[in-house]
Each structure stands twice: as structure tokens, then as C-alpha cells.
Amino acid sequence: MKPFLLLSTRDHDAAAAGELASFLTHSGLPPERLDRIRLVLEPDADIELGRYAGVFLGGSPFNSSDPLEQKSDVQVAVEARLRQLLDTIVAEDLPFLGACYGVGTLGVFAGGVVDRTYAEPISAVRVTLTDAAAADPLCAGLPAAFDAYVGHKEAVRELPPGAVLLGSSTACPVQMFRLKQNLYATQFHPELDAGALAQRIDVYKYAGYFPPETAEELKAEVAAADVEASHAILRRFVELYG
């Protein structure tokens, strides 16, 4: 069986390690079937997409909608590499699942509008599936509404042409969409559980997502949420394409 590929854009080692562990845990993949490339360390890595059953793109400290003059050289290099990879992924409709930063990256690439209109604080939100999701294979078996973890400064304001809206929340209209048949993106984090999110809260305590002095209170709040249903999206993706 082919492995899957996780494209990581996290520059913090602990956050990158936690992200890999989360994708392994909630996708059900054994370590030997999930390759990871940290694009912040090797943006020019040789990636043969045909080797992989599917591609994951995780979250990021980067924002796709930031003005170019505010982006670091590393961010510019990473985004250029992602556009190059998406040229092939989108053209060939290769299985792809982007989470958080992935929704903005795919959204911008495909012609959508991503900005700060629908930012959400770190929290558990109720995601409600659309009628279209009822016929979508990745959403098969999911409840009509479920809780999932979010925390983002930007979001899709206008879907790319041809995209199908699959999920929404009260404060963020685009929580999940599909492009073509095999290209998916979620604004929420299907890979995160409470422990992993607590680590993220520690890592990004001073990154502007929340007042730093509220970190411990925030950990307690998110720990009370049941986000198990959101993890099913990763497992289903692996079942469909693995």
C-alpha cells in the first residue's frame, strides 16, 4: 500500500512533532505509512506525488492573506512550493486534505477569497454539515452536527469557483469544502484532541491568538469539549484513498 504524505509548515519543533503525532493517532496510520516533509526546513525537497495515496496539509503560524511585504522569506518560499505542488494536485485531482492553513491555501490557489472577516478564537465550535455533505463520501457516517477545535486569524470568505460547501459554523460560514472529487479542506482541526491543543496553546501563547494570561483557563475550556466525531474525517480519508 502507498504511504500518505503530511506537508508541515510549522517552524516550532515541538509543534511540528505534536502535529505528526496527532495525524498518526487520529488517521489510524502506522508511522511507516505517513511520510512527513517540513517545508519550513526543506522547501525544495524532492516530492514525487505519485508515490502517495493522499496528501495532508496541516496548520501553520502563517496566514495566506497577509500582505506580501509582511511575509518572511521562509513563508514566501513555503507558499511558492505549495503553489507548485498544488499545480499538480489540483490539475490531477489527487486526494488532498488541508486543515486550517490548508483551507486558506487551497482556497486562495483555486480562486477563492481568504481574509480576516471570519476569524475564530481557539475554541470548540459546532460544525453543521450541509445537504451536499450527505452525499459526500468523506462525510459518510458523520453526525449532522459535531464539535471541532478551531483557532484561526483568517478564513474563506468566498468559496473558489466550483467548490462545494460541506460544513459551516455560526461564526465562520466555510468550515469545510470540496473541490473537484478528491480535494478537501477544513477550517477546523480534525487531527486535534484536547492534549494536542493544550500543547498548541503553550507553543503559541504569545502569537496573538488569545491573551497570554488566559492560557490555563483556555486549556480547561477546550478540554471539556467532545470532538471525537471530527477525527472520523481523517480516518475516513485514509479508508477512501488508502
TrEMBL record:
Stretches of the chain forming a coiled coil according to its record: none
Highest taxon, organism lineage: Bacteria
Pfam families: GATase
InterPro entries: ChyE-like, Class_I_gatase-like, GATASE
UniProtKB keywords: Glutamine amidotransferase
Domain Glutamine amidotransferase, chain residue ranges per copy: 49-195
SUPFAM superfamilies recorded: Class I glutamine amidotransferase-like (SSF52317)
Protein name (Swiss-Prot/TrEMBL): Glutamine amidotransferase
Organism: Tersicoccus solisilvae
Lineage: Bacteria, Bacillati, Actinomycetota, Actinomycetes, Micrococcales
